Each structure stands twice: as structure tokens, then as C-alpha cells.
């Protein structure tokens, strides 16, 4: 399975070479791999509906990371969408993008990349593997929506989609870690099995984990209140919308919920948010779809609405609801993708997607119209389409459950379905109907590449509806993870005819009500303009607010005053280390000095340190600091550390020279005007306390060693033979800790480059004639 | 340097006696320092090499050696100014730093090619006629890298803080001192 995913990415990598020969062959070649994947998955359908096919590859074994994959019923259903529809949409893209389109080259490669990572996502059986693919889909979506980035609208939409879904992704990662740690494993199949058996401990942690994961699922599947990114993403080319934002990627959230639901669906922390967000999304999406005039946006809000529906089915129910979920998942892919492709074809044929301008297309494009009507019938829930099967099962699931919860959800779904039927009618009327007082739109007939995929998808919805036992077998395997509530629930199967009953009545009401709402479209449109709440504004305010907070925080913390920074650092050091040392540390019982030579050196260092504070001239201060440095070097000599002393003397000399170089350009005295007394006292106090604390900590820590110095013993023992060095310091530097040495010289390299750039760059900043980046400046920095 | 007297002919130096080649302005020169530099500069360089090689057995090593060599250049710069530096080193300091880093990193990576762990060191031993057995460690190469890098860093410092500021002051019309 990993091989298939990798194959997608590799082919995507070489696809741009092919695109040079023309976009059409590139798209057609790209379509081969998803088609192969679908065939592969169908060939393994027997195993998938049975025990499932597993595969795992060690990724970083020492960290316990692995790439684990598993093909089961739910994955199979998703692969039908991801790979099956993916192949059709890639074929469609070959007709959609013109031969001179500059967006086609990258789109082909990115669409195939997306197909690969989405395949990885639906096959992943490891939470972290799933997360990696999850974020990769966000990134490919960003690149596909943004296109070449030359349109402001596209950039904004792409960024919004990225910010919202990645925000959710990060929250989800946190949830994954909590869940994985609570369960003791990151294998999804094991976690779900444990959840079903009630074996996962740490109730609070699991609840928090589930809520965090739901945030991720809600953002990805455009649930309230995160939904506006999906309609905004409609600026992308239509094949992208059809594939990512209708058939596959936006279902990732629903898929994740469906994946985990069998383990957690009886927890209130799980189903309550799902039911509330799902039904809310279904209603808001459906309502907003009734007011839109751009056909793509009508469908986009329809997708939002349907995702809410799916969320409820997968997350908030039992066995029957799960059956309905899988059926609707397939149905939605099979009707939404062709509808989008039909819009793309209309766009090609007429040059517009505005339903106020389209008129009489049902006569001009009868074939396309028939296919679109077939798909819309599935969306509205008309028999014998797959959408009807799903909707029947959905009503049955919650009506059968009964009680307050069951009836509330069922009525919510009914209302949502009325809106669904209404916007389905609005779509068909808007795209193909004849508008009063408007002439028939001139049409340039679309090619076969644009219409055949539409037909195939729409017929797929019809065929799966008629061949309902196939859909039932697939959905039934997934739903078998649930314990049925009673015998009747255990016996329920997807079928076209369940006899007269409440579900059938609900379906009829949904369709009748929807047509009624469509007849009253003028009034509805007027009403829908008065929405009290705007989620898009919410997003924009959040982003603007974040920027304001960033400005305030930066302004407060980066005041540009060296004394303030130093005071902050010193205060933190004193406050954090001082009390701990006072409480826990013991003053070592050591003599004040070991050798007499230490006394004059220490006195010299202390006198110089005090004198530095009193000095008024920079040059004096530098010399006194040098005295301190040499004094400390002398102490090293006395204590028997010649290596350290040598380095100390040399560095001290070099820094003296560097100081003198710099001092040439600085005023001789520190400050012209004396600072205020009070602030001087405060600084003096802080400096004194800081010095005392650091010195005290150094003494306490040096005496805090209790065990033998095992590390240095090893070094001493190994140096002569292991490193061939009599000098153990050298052995540590170039052998035992050689990696550190390389790191340190790397730092020196960066520091030298930094100093050169700063000194030589400011030289030109001060001048008006040439700024940074001028040839002369470049020459200076490089040497 | 007066060419008129025959006595001067036989020992007339082929190179300029003063370090910079082209002489700095008269009032900047300190003859004592220049003469001292003449003597000290090569001595310090040799001493720095000694420190580099002796590092395995007594105080020294690439870091100290590099600093001593660097200080030799500092001395030369102080005596002769930036012109003096350019006379010795035509290579750009950043290139020297990069060379040092590259030597060290390559030393670290070569063992990988030979199939052992990164940074593994080996003992090299040769028997030279008259001198006897001479042995060293491959990790000396790592130290050589450090040495070269430190020299480069000091030269870069001289270039930026030294001659950079020099030229700044010169451009601003201040007295270079």
C-alpha cells in the first residue's frame, strides 16, 4: 500500500516533464495510477470486507514510529471516491484545461500528488501516519486553490483554507497524542477495539483528546463555524473543486469521525458536539445555498450542508446510522462530483456560471442536462438513486431509536433534507431551466472529455442504487462494528423498498417541501439576506485580532532598550535560581583558597570589577575588563588547567584588540548626561543581587556533586588508547565530543559572517547613495 | 633608502623593507612596532603550528593555535594597516572560514564512507629513517579544520572591525588612528 502511495508521488514528480509535450497526455497519464489503485482495491474487496488487509513499515523503530496501513470496508468506500472519482476527474481535467493554460502543468502534478496523499490518509492505520497525510492534503489544497498566486482572491481563499485546516490539524495532533498515550498504542484499529471494549483508562484525558480531534475533523469537513473556507475555495478551477472540495478531501473529517466512532459513539463528549455541529451545518449550508447565484457556490454550500449530514450519520448513531453513513458517503461523491463537472462544462460552453444569465440550456445541452438531473435526483433523495437509499436509512436510524435524541435529530435531518431538495431543484432550474424574459444563452458545445465523466458518475449513482445489495455488503461490513440496539436494528439492510412507514413519509415530505420552498424562491432569497451572523466576518476578525495582539505583544516586549533587556534577564535568573538554591543547596565545606597565589589574583579581579563600574571612559572600562579576564586566566593556571588558561589568555587578547578597533568610532565617555539617581540605585541593586546569586550558585553547585565523576573517569581511562592523546582535554575536543566541536565551529562561522554583515552593511545604510545589496556592499561583505 | 651610495647596492632589499609594501602615511607609523612585527610574525606562525601539532599531548590544539596565528595577523595589521594584510593574504576571509569548516566536516564524514561510525578516528604510524617512529591521529585533521577556521574568523574580524571602520573614518574625514 505504501508502494502505491509512493508511486503516485513519484509519477507526479516526473509529470511536469510530460506536460511539456502537452497537457492532455499529462492528465491522461496521471489518471492511470488512480485507476490502477481502484482496480487493486476492488481486487482485494473480499479481504477488505473480511478481516482487512494490513501492512506496516518501520519508519523510525527506535522511536516506535511506523507507517501502518489497513484496507477495510470504510477505506474501500473512500478509495472508490478518492481513486475512482479521481481518475474520472483527471480525465475530465484533460478536457477542461486548454492547451495553452499555464495552470495545467502544476495542476496535473498537484492533483496526482493529492490523489496519492489522500490515498495514504484513507489507508492509514496509525494516528501519526494519518496526521502526516492529513496535513499534506491541506498543503496540496493550498497550492491548488492558490494557483499561480497572481490573483488576490485566490491567495486569500487558499490562505484561509490553509489556516483553518492547519489550525484544526494541530489541535487534532494534540488529541492524537493524548489518545495514543491513553490507549498505549497509536494503531487506529487497536484503539477503536479498545474503545469499544471500554478498556481505555484516563477518562478526562480521553474526553479532551476526542474534543481536540473533533476540532480537526470539523475544520477539515467545513463544519459550523469553520465552514466559510469551503465556499471561498471555489475560486479554484472546477476540476479541483470537484475533486478536493466535493468528492474527497473535505470528507477526510467525516472519514476520521467514521473511523473512530465505533469506539466512542456512546460517549456524550463525542456525539453531542457532532450532532449539534452537524445539524447546524446541514441547515445553515442548505439555507445559504438557496441565496447564491453562482452555480459553483450553490454546490459548495450544498457540500457544506451534506458534510453536516454525513457527520451526524457517522458520529451520532448506531448500526443503521452507520449503514446510512457509508451509503451517503458514496452517494455524495457520485452526485456532487458530476454536478461540479457539469458546472465546469457549462462554464466552458457559455462562459458564465451565473444562474441569472443562463437560460434554456436544457434544449441546447440535453445530454448534459439529463446527466445532471440524474445526479441532482440522487442529491434530493429520489428513488431509485443511491441518495434515496442513504436518506431512507438515515431517517430509519433515528426514528427507530426514538426518544428525545432520536426525534430531535430525525426532525433536524428532515428540515435539512427539505433544504437539500430545494437547492437541488434550484440548481437544476438555475442551470438548465428557461428564465422568463431572457433569451436562450448562446452555447459552444463541450467536448466528450467534459461530458462522459459526468455521465459515468451519474450512472454510477443510479447503478449502485439499483444494485443495492452491493452497497449493503460494503456498508454492512463497516456497520458490523456496532452492537445493534435490538433484533430489528440488527436485521435492517439497505433496500429500495421497506414498506410504508415513517421513513418513506419523511422522504416524501423532504422532496415535496423542497419543491415548495423552490416555488417560493423570491421570498426565500429576500429572507436569506437577513442573516444575523456571518462566519466569514468571524474568521477575518480572528485573523485581524491575532495580528493586533502580535503588534501589542511585540511592542511591549521589544522596547529597544538594552538596560531593560538586561534587567529582564537578570530578574528572571535571580527569581528562578535564587530561591531554589537557597532552599535546596548546601554551602560546601571548603577552604576559602587552596594556594596562596589565588589570593592576589582574586583581589586583582575584584578590584578591577569594582573599578569597571566606576569608570567613566570606555577605554578604561575595556582595559579593566581585560584585567578581569587575565586574572581569571591566572586562576586557571593556579588551579592546574593550562589548556583553559591558554585559551582564556588568547581570547582575552583578541577581544581587547576587537574592542579597541570598535572604540575608535565611539565617544570616549559613556554617557553625556548622568542618569537619574533612583534608576541608578535600582540598577545597582539588581546588578548586585544578580552577581551575588550567580556567584553563590556557582559555589553551591560546584560542591553539590555526590557521586563519583564517572564521565571524567572514563575520559581519563580512554584518552591514551582510545583517542591516542595524552592530553585528555584534546581527546574530549577532537574525539569524545568531536561532534560538539563541529557544532561550535559552525556557530563561529555564523558569528563571523554576522559580524561582517552587520558592520559592513550599516556602513551603507547610513549613506543615501547606495543601499544594501549594491555591488559595492556585496563586495565588502564577501571580502 | 638611498641608491647613490655603492655600499647600499649589495644588500639592497628586493622587497620593500616596511611591511605594507606601499607605506602608510608618515604620522601613522611606529617604527618600533614594525620592526618587532618583522621578527614576531613568522615566529608566532611557527609557534601556532607547534601548538596545533602538540595539542594531543600537552596544552594547545587547533583553537589555541588558530588564535595565536590570528593574533600574529592582528599584530601585522596594527603595524601595517589593512594594506599590510592584503599583502599576505589574497584569499577572502569567508573562503578561509569555509575551508576550515569543510575540512572538519569532511574529516567527520570520511569514516562513514569507510563503513564505520561518524567521527571515528584512527592512529597513523610511520617509521621514518633517522627520526624513528612518528605517529599521529586522524583526528588531527579535525583540529586542522578548526585552526584554519579560527584564522579565518580573526581575519574576518580585522576586515570588518579593522579596515571596515578604517575606511568609514577615512570617508567621514576623520583621522585614522
Automatic annotation (TrEMBL), chain A:
<dbReference type="InterPro" id="IPR025383">
    <property type="entry name" value="MrpA_C/MbhD"/>
</dbReference>
<dbReference type="GO" id="GO:0015297">
    <property type="term" value="F:antiporter activity"/>
</dbReference>
<feature type="transmembrane region" description="Helical">
    <location>
        <begin position="619"/>
        <end position="638"/>
    </location>
</feature>
<feature type="transmembrane region" description="Helical">
    <location>
        <begin position="104"/>
        <end position="122"/>
    </location>
</feature>
<dbReference type="InterPro" id="IPR001750">
    <property type="entry name" value="ND/Mrp_TM"/>
</dbReference>
<keyword id="KW-0472">Membrane</keyword>
<dbReference type="Pfam" id="PF13244">
    <property type="entry name" value="MbhD"/>
</dbReference>
<dbReference type="Pfam" id="PF00662">
    <property type="entry name" value="Proton_antipo_N"/>
</dbReference>
<dbReference type="GO" id="GO:0005886">
    <property type="term" value="C:plasma membrane"/>
</dbReference>
<keyword id="KW-1003">Cell membrane</keyword>
<feature type="domain" description="NADH:quinone oxidoreductase/Mrp antiporter transmembrane">
    <location>
        <begin position="124"/>
        <end position="409"/>
    </location>
</feature>
<feature type="transmembrane region" description="Helical">
    <location>
        <begin position="298"/>
        <end position="316"/>
    </location>
</feature>
<dbReference type="GO" id="GO:0006811">
    <property type="term" value="P:monoatomic ion transport"/>
</dbReference>
<feature type="transmembrane region" description="Helical">
    <location>
        <begin position="684"/>
        <end position="704"/>
    </location>
</feature>
<keyword id="KW-1133">Transmembrane helix</keyword>
<feature type="transmembrane region" description="Helical">
    <location>
        <begin position="73"/>
        <end position="92"/>
    </location>
</feature>
<feature type="transmembrane region" description="Helical">
    <location>
        <begin position="644"/>
        <end position="663"/>
    </location>
</feature>
<dbReference type="Pfam" id="PF00361">
    <property type="entry name" value="Proton_antipo_M"/>
</dbReference>
<dbReference type="Pfam" id="PF20501">
    <property type="entry name" value="MbhE"/>
</dbReference>
<feature type="domain" description="MrpA C-terminal/MbhE">
    <location>
        <begin position="683"/>
        <end position="760"/>
    </location>
</feature>
<feature type="domain" description="NADH-Ubiquinone oxidoreductase (complex I) chain 5 N-terminal">
    <location>
        <begin position="62"/>
        <end position="96"/>
    </location>
</feature>
<feature type="transmembrane region" description="Helical">
    <location>
        <begin position="406"/>
        <end position="429"/>
    </location>
</feature>
<feature type="transmembrane region" description="Helical">
    <location>
        <begin position="200"/>
        <end position="219"/>
    </location>
</feature>
<dbReference type="InterPro" id="IPR046806">
    <property type="entry name" value="MrpA_C/MbhE"/>
</dbReference>
<keyword id="KW-0812">Transmembrane</keyword>
<feature type="transmembrane region" description="Helical">
    <location>
        <begin position="322"/>
        <end position="343"/>
    </location>
</feature>
<feature type="transmembrane region" description="Helical">
    <location>
        <begin position="564"/>
        <end position="586"/>
    </location>
</feature>
<keyword id="KW-0813">Transport</keyword>
<dbReference type="InterPro" id="IPR050616">
    <property type="entry name" value="CPA3_Na-H_Antiporter_A"/>
</dbReference>
<keyword id="KW-0050">Antiport</keyword>
<feature type="transmembrane region" description="Helical">
    <location>
        <begin position="592"/>
        <end position="612"/>
    </location>
</feature>
<feature type="transmembrane region" description="Helical">
    <location>
        <begin position="157"/>
        <end position="180"/>
    </location>
</feature>
<protein>
    <submittedName>
        <fullName>DUF4040 domain-containing protein</fullName>
    </submittedName>
</protein>
<dbReference type="InterPro" id="IPR001516">
    <property type="entry name" value="Proton_antipo_N"/>
</dbReference>
<feature type="transmembrane region" description="Helical">
    <location>
        <begin position="742"/>
        <end position="761"/>
    </location>
</feature>
<feature type="transmembrane region" description="Helical">
    <location>
        <begin position="450"/>
        <end position="475"/>
    </location>
</feature>
<keyword id="KW-0406">Ion transport</keyword>
<feature type="transmembrane region" description="Helical">
    <location>
        <begin position="364"/>
        <end position="386"/>
    </location>
</feature>
<feature type="domain" description="MrpA C-terminal/MbhD">
    <location>
        <begin position="604"/>
        <end position="667"/>
    </location>
</feature>
<feature type="transmembrane region" description="Helical">
    <location>
        <begin position="495"/>
        <end position="517"/>
    </location>
</feature>
<feature type="transmembrane region" description="Helical">
    <location>
        <begin position="270"/>
        <end position="291"/>
    </location>
</feature>
Amino acid at each position: 500500500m505504501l508502494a502505491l502511495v509512493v508511486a503516485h508521488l513519484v509519477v507526479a514528480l516526473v509529470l511536469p516533464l510530460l506536460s511539456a509535450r502537452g497537457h492532455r497526455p499529462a492528465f491522461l497519464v496521471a489518471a492511470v495510477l488512480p485507476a490502477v489503485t481502484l482496480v487493486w482495491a476492488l481486487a482485494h474487496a473480499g479481504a477488505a470486507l473480511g478481516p482487512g488487509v494490513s501492512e506496516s513499515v518501520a519508519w523510525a523503530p527506535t522511536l516506535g514510529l511506523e507507517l501502518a496501513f489497513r484496507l477495510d470496508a470504510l477505506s474501500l468506500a473512500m478509495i472508490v471516491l478518492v481513486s475512482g472519482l479521481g481518475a474520472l476527474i483527471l480525465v475530465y481535467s484533460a478536457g477542461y484545461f486548454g492547451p495553452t493554460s499555464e495552470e495545467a502543468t502544476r495542476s496535473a502534478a498537484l492533483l496526482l500528488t493529492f490523489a496519492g496523499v489522500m490515498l495514504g490518509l484513507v489507508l492509514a492505520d496509525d494516528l501519526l501516519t494519518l496526521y502526516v497525510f492529513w496535513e499534506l492534503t491541506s498543503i496540496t489544497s493550498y497550492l491548488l486553490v492558490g494557483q499561480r498566486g497572481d490573483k488576490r482572491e485566490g491567495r486569500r481563499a487558499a490562505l484561509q483554507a490553509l489556516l483553518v485546516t492547519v489550525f484544526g490539524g494541530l489541535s487534532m495532533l494534540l488529541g492524537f497524542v493524548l489518545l495514543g498515550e491513553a490507549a498505549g498504542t497509536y494503531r487506529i484499529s487497536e484503539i477503536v477495539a479498545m474503545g469499544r471494549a471500554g478498556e481505555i483508562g484516563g477518562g478526562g484525558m480521553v474526553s479532551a483528546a476526542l474534543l481536540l480531534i473533533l476540532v480537526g475533523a470539523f475544520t477539515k469537513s467545513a463544519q459550523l463555524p469553520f465552514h466559510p473556507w469551503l465556499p471561498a475555495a471555489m475560486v479554484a478551477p472546477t476540476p479541483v473543486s470537484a475533486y478536493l472540495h466535493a468528492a474527497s478531501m473535505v470528507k477526510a473529517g467525516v472519514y476520521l469521525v467514521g473511523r473512530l466512532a465505533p469506539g466512542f459513539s456512546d460517549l456524550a463528549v463525542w456525539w453531542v458536539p457532532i450532532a449539534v455541529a452537524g445539524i447546524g451545518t446541514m441547515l445553515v449550508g442548505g439555507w445559504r445555498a438557496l441565496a447564491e447565484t453562482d452555480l459553483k457556490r450553490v454546490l459548495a454550500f450544498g457540500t457544506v450542508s451534506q458534510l453536516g449530514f454525513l457527520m451526524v450519520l457517522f458520529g451520532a448513531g448506531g448500526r443503521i446510522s452507520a449503514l446510512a453513513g457509508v451509503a451517503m458517503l458514496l452517494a455524495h461523491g457520485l452526485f456532487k462530483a458530476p454536478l461540479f463537472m457539469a458546472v465546469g462544462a457549462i462554464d466552458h460552453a457559455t462562459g458564465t456560471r451565473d444562474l441569472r444569465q443562463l437560460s434554456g440550456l436544457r434544449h441546447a445541452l440535453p445530454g448534459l442536462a439529463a446527466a445532471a438531473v440524474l445526479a441532482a435526483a440522487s442529491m434530493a433523495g429520489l428513488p431509485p438513486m443511491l441518495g434515496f437509499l442513504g436518506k431512507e436509512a438515515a431517517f430509519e436510524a433515528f426514528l427507530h431509536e426514538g426518544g428525545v435524541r432520536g426525534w430531535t435529530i430525525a426532525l433536524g435531518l428532515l428540515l435539512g433534507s427539505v433544504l437539500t431538495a430545494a437547492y437541488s431543484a434550484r440548481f437544476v432550474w438555475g442551470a438548465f431551466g428557461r428564465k422568463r424574459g431572457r433569451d436562450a444563452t448562446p452555447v459552444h458545445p463541450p467536448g466528450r472529455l467534459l461530458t462522459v465523466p459526468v455521465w459515468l458518475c451519474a450512472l454510477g449513482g443510479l447503478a449502485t442504487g439499483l444494485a443495492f445489495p452491493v452497497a449493503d455488503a460494503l456498508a454492512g461490513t463497516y456497520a458490523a462494528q456496532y452492537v445493534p440496539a435490538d433484533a430489528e436494528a440488527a436485521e435492517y439492510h439497505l433496500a429500495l423498498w421497506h414498506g410504508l412507514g415513517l421513513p418513506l413519509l419523511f422522504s416524501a415530505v423532504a422532496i415535496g417541501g423542497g419543491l415548495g420552498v423552490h416555488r417560493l424562491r423570491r421570498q426565500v432569497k429576500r429572507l436569506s439576506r437577513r442573516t444575523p451572523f456571518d462566519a466569514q466576518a468571524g474568521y477575518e476578525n480572528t485573523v485581524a485580532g491575532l495580528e493586533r495582539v502580535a503588534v501589542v505583544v511585540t511592542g511591549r516586549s521589544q522596547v529597544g532598550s538594552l538596560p531593560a533587556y538586561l534587567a529582564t534577564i537578570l530578574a528572571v535568573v535571580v527569581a528562578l535560581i535564587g530561591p531554589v538554591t537557597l532552599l535546596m543547596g548546601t554551602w560546601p565545606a571548603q577552604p576559602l583558597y587552596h594556594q596562596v597565589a589565588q589570593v592576589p589574583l582574586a583581589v586583582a579581579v575584584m578590584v578591577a570589577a569594582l573599578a569597571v563600574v566606576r569608570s567613566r571612559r570606555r577605554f578604561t572600562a575595556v582595559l579593566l575588563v581585560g584585567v578581569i579576564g587575565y586574572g581569571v586566566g591566572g586562576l586557571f593556571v593556579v588551579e592546574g588547567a593550562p589548556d583553559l588558561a591558554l585559551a582564556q589568555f588568547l581570547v582575552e587578547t583578541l577581544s581587547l584588540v576587537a574592542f579597541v578597533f570598535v572604540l575608535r568610532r565611539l565617544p570616549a565617555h559613556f554617557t553625556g548626561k548622568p542618569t537619574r539617581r533612583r534608576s541608578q540605585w535600582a540598577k545597582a541593586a539588581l546588578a548586585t543581587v544578580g552577581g551575588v546569586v550567580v556567584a553563590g550558585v556557582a559555589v553551591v553547585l560546584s560542591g553539590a556533586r555526590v557521586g563519583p565523576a564517572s564521565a571524567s573517569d572514563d575520559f581519563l581511562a580512554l584518552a591514551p588508547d582510545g583517542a591516542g592523546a595524552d592530553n585528555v582535554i584534546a581527546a574530549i575536543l577532537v574525539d569524545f565530543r568531536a561532534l560538539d566541536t563541529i557544532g561550535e565551529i559552525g556557530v563561529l562561522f555564523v558569528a563571523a559572517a554576522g559580524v561582517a554583515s552587520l558592520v559592513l552593511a550599516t556602513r551603507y545604510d547610513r549613506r543615501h547613495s547606495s543601499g544594501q545589496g549594491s555591488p559595492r556592499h556585496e563586495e565588502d561583505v564577501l571580502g | 633608502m638611498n641608491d647613490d651610495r655603492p655600499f647600499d647596492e649589495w644588500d639592497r632589499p628586493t622587497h620593500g623593507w616596511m611591511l605594507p609594501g606601499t607605506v602608510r602615511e608618515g604620522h601613522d607609523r611606529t617604527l618600533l612596532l614594525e620592526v618587532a612585527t618583522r621578527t614576531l610574525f613568522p615566529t608566532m606562525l611557527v609557534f601556532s603550528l607547534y601548538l596545533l601539532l602538540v595539542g594531543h599531548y600537552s596544552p594547545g590544539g587547533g583553537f589555541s593555535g588558530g588564535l595565536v596565528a590570528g593574533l600574529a595577523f592582528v599584530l601585522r595589521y596594527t603595524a601595517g594597516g589593512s594594506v599590510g594584510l592584503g599583502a599576505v593574504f589574497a584569499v577572502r576571509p569567508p573562503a578561509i572560514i569555509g575551508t576550515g569548516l569543510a575540512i572538519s566536516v569532511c574529516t567527520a564524514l570520511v569514516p562513514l564512507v569507510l563503513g564505520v561510525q561518524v567521527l571515528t578516528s584512527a592512529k597513523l604510524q610511520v617509521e621514518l629513517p633517522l627520526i624513528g617512529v612518528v605517529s599521529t591521529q586522524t583526528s588531527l585533521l579535525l583540529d586542522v579544520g578548526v585552526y584554519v577556521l579560527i584564522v579565518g574568523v580573526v581575519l574576518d574580524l580585522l576586515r570588518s572591525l579593522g579596515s571596515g571602520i578604517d575606511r568609514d573614518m577615512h570617508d567621514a574625514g576623520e583621522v585614522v588612528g
